[in-house]
Write a structure and sequence with these properties.
It is found in: Cytoplasm. Helices cover 29% and strands 14% of the residues. By secondary structure, it is of the alpha/beta class. The protein has one domain: 3-Layer(aba) Sandwich (Uracil-DNA Glycosylase, subunit E), CATH 3.40.470.10. The N terminus is likely disordered.
Length: 256
């Protein structure tokens, strides 16, 4: 039987304006989730009541009880949404799932914590393409928070991973949750840029209306595929050209 509970959200310091509680339906247990920016909460509250998300919450809870280390840390699960409010999104860069190495992932696709060296190979290739495309050298950093602050939603389709086990949380319910995010952006916003790197990201292309948004699709920046269409695709200049053409401020891709 379904019973209504109020979901109290764990407080954190990501953003001072984050909502502190969500009301949802849960069948057996009282769940807590990380804080969620109000602009996204109004869109996603109903999604927390779906069987898919309920099963996901149970799965994550069970994994924690089994002693599995879940990455990123729980307060950072929704860092992408908390870093870029719904009405501030200009670009969506869709990733797959977080880095499975402790201390790397912090909730933004492809990004790593500021002190991580060497950078993951995919991120090195992103920096190489940026240098070739716009002459910007970001080889000193892989912390992409500055992009998120300018309206780049760095979203993974799967928001958690088991430490040391890449892809372990695929097909557990996150894909349906993030699909809702993509659908909301497609339906309620105009002239966005969706960057789909690799086959996993391109599975979501059917949810995007190409008459309303620009879709940039290419191979993934992974070392296994970067030379099969990622290098030379010039995504960064194409993004800024679209922003200029639609009267929006361009992205400063240079990292601090």
């Amino acid at each position: 039987m379904w019973i209504r509970h109020t979901l109290f959200v764990e407080s954190d310091t990501i953003r001072p304006t984050l909502q502190t509680s969500i009301s949802l339906m849960t069948n057996t247990q009282f769940h807590t989730i990380p804080a969620l920016h109000p602009s996204w909460q109004s869109i996603l509250t109903d999604e927390f009541s779906t069987p898919s998300t309920q099963n996901l919450l149970h799965f994550l809870e069970d994994q924690a009880l089994l002693g599995k280390s879940i990455l990123p840390a729980k307060p950072l699960w929704f860092n992408a949404l908390n870093s870029t409010a719904f009405d501030q999104v200009k670009i969506v860069i869709l990733g797959q799932d977080p880095y499975p190495t402790a201390g790397h992932a912090h909730g933004l696709s492809f990004s790593v914590m500021p002190d991580v060296k060497p950078l993951p190979r995919s991120l090195q290739n992103i920096n190489k393409e940026l240098l070739e495309d716009l002459g910007i050298d970001n080889s000193h950093s892989g912390h992409l928070q500055a992009w998120a602050d300018q309206g780049v939603l760095l979203l993974n389709t799967v928001l958690t991973v088991e430490e040391g086990n890449a892809g372990a949380h695929q097909r557990t319910g996150w894909e349906a949750f993030t699909q809702k995010i993509i659908e909301a952006l497609n339906h309620d916003r105009d002239d966005l840029v969706f960057v789909l790197w690799g086959k996993q990201a391109q599975k979501h292309e059917s949810a995007i209306d190409p008459t309303r948004h620009l879709i940039i699709a290419s191979a993934h920046p992974s070392p296994l595929s970067a030379r099969r269409g990622f290098f030379g695709s010039k995504p960064f200049s194409r993004i800024n050209e679209h922003l200029e053409n639609t009267g929006k401020t361009t992205i400063n891709w240079q990292l601090p």
